[in-house]
Design a protein that fits this description.
Elements lengths: L10 E10 L3 H11 L2 H10 L3 E11 L4 E6 L5 H8 L7 E6 L2 E2 L5 H10 L1 E5 L10 H12 L3 H14 L15 H13 L5 E5 L7 H18 L2 E6 L2 H7 L2 E6 L2 E6 L1 H6 L4 H6 L29 E2 L4 H8 L6 E4 L5 E5 L1 H12 L1
Parallel strand pairs: 3-8, 3-9, 6-7, 7-8, 11-12
Antiparallel strand pairs: 1-2, 1-4, 4-5, 9-10, 12-13
Helix pairs in contact: 1-2, 5-6, 5-7, 6-7, 12-13
Length: 350
């Protein structure tokens, strides 16, 4: 018999509110009985209450890297703390693999954090008196794992994050990027199903930050975790995300793939984030397919559905006739002309 929750999303957030201030819950109930979400927010503010998260609704699929971004004060860090129940939401539900964790007991919540949920924050929070290996192994110690098992797992994840050979070093002897790697390794030690990361790279120098982003993508390609990642950096979001949620004033204003966010922003606020992003890195070849499929296309440079304009152009820039576009199964579903591809890319970049 199939588990009823086997097809449930890794995370499902429904109508989630976080209101700060005295008597927030009854005030929210009264306000919601009287008006829509925008009217609710105004009424709460009139009562000197702060609606930090407003009616958030989204799902994170199993194995998906879901990025939440917005300006400072948009509510993104509050939202991730509500999802992980570091903050108690004022209203709504958060389901982890189908289980409403807002109804979980303290004991159950501790079990979830020890067994299923991993967390990494901007500030590393390492124990200065412990070696790198002991810092990484600490969550396993809390689970009751033996010393040899803890050590073996610590060495395993330290190698994964590029710190092999530094296991007996102390945090004070590491660079900022290396300390962040230790924090990532510690969160991975218990092999969580779901990973929460709140601006984990924002305090790092740009070069180190890019290197860690690349390593992070390699780790995700290997482990396929379900991830909620917070950032205020659009370039970071576009590089890492499967999907992006944009927040403003506590409200999610758009959810979409990087391509959708860049090419089809819902309003000027979203468009402002990506105004300096080269559009050709996100527009895909299927947006300029020719009408019909020519009979003779001798050249096949390997252009596939989902390939961006700039990547496709590098594959056929020396060609002068239409080239095929194939789907994931290798079937030809259309054709593009290299000349039109170059024109489209130029138009996107201007």
């Amino acid at each position: 018999m199939t588990d009823a929750n086997s097809t449930a999303p890794a995370i499902a957030v429904e109508d989630l509110w976080q209101v700060f201030g005295e008597n927030a819950a009854p005030a929210l109930r009264d306000a919601r009985a009287a008006g829509d979400d925008k009217a609710i927010a105004k009424e709460l503010k009139d009562k000197t209450l702060i609606p930090a998260v407003r009616a958030a609704n989204f799902e994170v699929k199993s194995g998906e890297l879901f990025v939440i971004m917005g300006l400072s004060g948009s509510g993104k860090s509050t939202l991730i703390r509500c999802i992980s129940r570091l903050i108690e939401p004022t209203a709504g539900s958060v389901r982890i693999d189908g289980e409403d964790i807002l109804q979980a007991s303290d004991k159950r919540l501790i079990d979830l954090r020890r067994q299923k949920l991993g967390m990494v924050f901007q500030h590393f929070g390492l124990f200065p008196h412990m070696t790198v290996a002991n810092n990484v192994a600490f969550p396993l110690k809390m689970q009751g794992a033996g010393k040899a098992e803890r050590r073996a797992r610590a060495l395993e994840v330290l190698e994964l994050v590029g710190l092999k050979g530094r296991e007996d070093t102390y945090p004070r002897n590491l660079s900022g990027g290396q300390r962040q790697r230790v924090g990532i390794a510690r969160s991975l030690a218990v092999n969580p199903d779901i990973w929460f990361l709140d601006e984990p790279f924002s305090a790092l120098d740009p070069l180190i930050r890019r290197q860690l982003q690349d390593e992070f993508l390699n780790i995700q390609a290997t482990l396929k975790k379900s991830i909620v990642f917070i950032t205020h950096d659009i370039q970071e979001a576009l590089k890492l995300a499967d999907r992006i949620a944009i927040m403003r004033d506590g409200e999610i204003v758009q959810i979409g793939t990087p391509e959708e966010i860049v090419l089809h922003p819902v309003d000027d606020y979203v468009a402002e984030f990506s105004k300096d992003v080269p559009k050709g890195r996100h527009a895909c070849v299927e947006s300029i397919l020719m009408d019909g499929i020519p009979d003779n296309m001798p050249d096949d440079p390997g252009i596939k559905v989902g390939m961006t304009l700039d990547t496709a152009l590098t594959k056929c820039m020396e060609l002068y006739e239409p080239v095929p576009v194939r789907d994931a199964a290798g079937k030809v579903i259309g054709a593009v002309h290299p000349h039109e591809l170059a024109n489209a890319l130029q138009a996107e970049e201007t």
